[in-house]
Amino acid sequence: MITIKDVKKDYIDGDIKVHALRGVSMEIERGEFLSIAGPSGSGKTTLLNLIGCIDSIDGGEISIDGEELARRKAKELVEIRRHKIGFVFQSFNLIPVLSAYENVAIVLEMLELPRGEIRERTMTLLHEVGLEGMENRRPSKLSGGQQQRVAVARALIKEPLIVLADEPTANLDSGTGEALLKLMKRINHDRGTTFVFSTHDPMVMDYAGRLCRLHDGEIESDEKRSV
Amino acid sequence: MVRRARFFFVLAFRNLTRHRRRTVVTALAMAVGISIYTSMDSILVGFISEIDRNLVDFEIGNAAITAPEYWDERHRYLLDRLVEDPEALLRVLEEAGIPAAPRTTFRGDLIVHYDPFPEDGSVPMVFAGLDPELDSRVFRLREAIVEGRWLESGREEIVLGRWLAEQLGAEVGYPVSVTTRTRDGYRQFLELEVAGIYESPNPYVDRNKVHLPLDVADLYLEMKGAVTSIHLKLPEAIPGTADPAPARRVLEAVGAGPVVALSYADMTEEFTEMMEMEEGFTNLLLFLLAIIAIVGVSNTMLMSVLEREREIGMLRSLGLHNREIRLLFSLEAAGIGVLGAIGGLALGSVFTGLLVTYGVDYSRLMSEIDFAGYRFDSVLYGVWNYGTMVSATVFAVLVAGVVAIFPTRRILKKSVTDCLRHV
């Protein structure tokens, strides 16, 4: 489903050229629960950003569902993000002036689905992530775990090909983080949604069906696991 | 797209509530700007309207018939470009239902003598011979008589303005002398009596003009029935906007000699400069309003955009196009413009209402200084100018919306990842 072939990415930090990714190759299959692990600066967030079409590749190829990203124009990449990719961020990134319901429904509003369908899908998903009765609460009235559940619902609502989660448990306590992981694991199981995490949280690695370790921009290990 | 736009409207509106104080302060600055603009425009339009009304009602009517080139040369007061047969023209104008009043305007010296006047003296004046009966069909000078009485045909008398009467120490019944020249250029001397004193809202007339019966002027100036002009009162909703076509049709139909029908605009070309000045001042205010809107809104939006850089990154990662994010921030800024416009209209309506009802009293200023050419007297009233209110509103909203593009564009030049990294 996602093919990553010899991908390179460099950054300029002052006068120094930093090789964030030095020729990474891997295949991500539909329905995988993949954790990309590694220390800070190993290139895991960069890899996620490249898969998510929010950063540009300096070398190599990434294709999603057969569509090669490097040859796409910026507007086409936006459309890919809009329809095929869901993001979960470390710091939730919810819109504070919108309710939990609206923070999720915004995605479907962008897709201009019928209002009835938006309502039904949003309510169902909020219920599924355990936020029933909290639909009208604004983020400031939700706990960190609840906010991250809203963010997960926002990522899932368009039924994307892949959900990219950049250290989703980093701002949560261990109990809340584990509950969130269980939730995502369940959704992965029930819906067959592909999840790719970047993390250095051992708990997240424990839940991963596949663990890919990066070090200095290269794949150190890539193993499938039975969880 | 409509659905999406509706959602952006909702989100933009909600975003306005994030920093209420900032929104209110920016909107308030715009409101003050708009209210000043609409109020100043109200008083300026009132000023121009007052001038138009005073010119129409006390000096020139809203159209006139004169000899060709008379109007351009009128300030020389030469009696060589005349309407030779006003009687015939007045007849056809009467038949056509157009109120008309003949006048003969000339220059002379008004001479007063000690006892009954406080002292001897003479002052150059503009004199207007008018038909006491017909004049009221076009002008309102007769209504302005506050002492004595209106002129009567055949009587050697004058009426003059209150201001001039006070300067001369003149009262009703006082004798005055006038020296002038006849149509043929011979010196002439008239002895007249003050029949009445008027107090018109047109200070130029009050200060600079003396009126006497047309037949007396005709006799002493040896006009042989000719007049310098025939003033008309054509139908019009706003003073000074009458279409002179009916008068021109009459002139063509009767094949009147060498005369022309002048519109109000033809007769007031010298005021065009004043109108342009008014327009320039209004534009200056509009410019200041734009500056307030640009500085205020751009500053507010810049802060807003910078604070929400990570949110912008999130929206872009959700799949929003840059144009949609620009639209979102422009709608938000336009919302500030709308709030400013609502406040400005409310505040401006209060100011304008006060100006329309009570006006601005210039009587002290006008009594001290002679603003020759400014035909307004004591209290200057504002007018409701709905066009300006609408244009100020639209302008404020548009400027606010457009101004937001620049800070937003600055952020959108950054990559999505840079936006997301923003702390």
Report on this model:
The complex is a heterodimer of chains A (227) and B (423). Chain A has 227 residues and is α/β, with parallel strands linked by helices. Chain A has one domain (31-54, 73-224): Rossmann fold, CATH 3.40.50. In chain A, 36% of the residues lie in helices and 29% in strands. Chain A is built from 7 helices and 10 strands. Chain A has helices at 44-51, 74-84, 100-110, 115-128, 144-156, 174-191, 202-207; strands spanning 2-13, 16-28, 33-37, 59-64, 67-68, 85-88, 162-166, 194-199, 210-215, 218-224. In chain A, the strands form 2 sheets. In chain A, strands 6-7-8-3-9-10 form a 6-stranded mixed β-sheet. The longest helix of chain A has 18 residues, at 174-191. The radius of gyration of chain A is 17 Å and the shape is globular. In chain A, 47% of the residues are buried. Chain B has 423 residues and is an alpha+beta fold. Chain B has 2 domains: 2-55 and 272-421, no CATH class; 63-233, no CATH class. Chain B has helices spanning 2-16, 20-60, 70-73, 86-95, 135-138, 162-168, 203-208, 214-221, 245-254, 264-267, 272-307, 309-318, 322-357, 363-368, 386-403, 405-412, 416-421, and strands at 63-66, 100-112, 121-130, 145-148, 157-161, 175-181, 187-198, 209-213, 229-232, 260-263, 360-361, 379-380. The longest helix of chain B is centred in the N-terminal third of the chain and has 41 residues, at 20-60. The radius of gyration of chain B is 31 Å and the shape is elongated. Chain B starts with a helix and ends with a helix. The relative contact order of chain B is 0.19. Classes of the chains: A alpha/beta (227), B alpha+beta (423). The interface between A and B is medium-sized, with 26 and 24 residues.
